[in-house]
Amino acid sequence: MISPYFQDHMEGNVCFGCGKKNDDGLHIKGYWEGDEAHCIWQPEEKYHGWANLLSGGILSTIIDCHCMGTAMAYAYKSEGRALDSKPWYRYATGTMNIKFLRPTPIAVPVKLIARVTEQKGKKVVMKCEAWSGDTLTAEADVIAIRVYNSADAQGENPFID
Known about the structure:
The chain is mainly β. It has one helix at about 55-80, and strands spanning about 30-35, 35-40, 90-100, 110-120, 125-130, 135-150.
């Protein structure tokens, strides 16, 4: 059985937020729960902004990476193919607008829930929520743009180390 985690199917991924080939990275992992993409990530103290609270930059990074993985997985899903199939797609952030609603504690796992609201050509529009327990701590509107399609590629893949 193939891994359900989106990031496990991004060959050569060295991204700080989601790359399994980045030893110092955050290693987030997204997966489908119905039509929603979920991610549960446990912060560490070294990622604090203020004492016992997650840095807003780190929260932004995991939202960003979760949404880029979601965009890729959604494209595959909408084409009726598995995460481990070719052609490979990669997405980059077009825009991301985050509303920080409450502080996000480090002691509690962060749960991200992304929902695709629109797909048009190479663009995927999403809403993403960050939860700490039962508390909604941030909301984001994110647009991902497909920047790589291995079927159209000329030369080497810039997304593989």
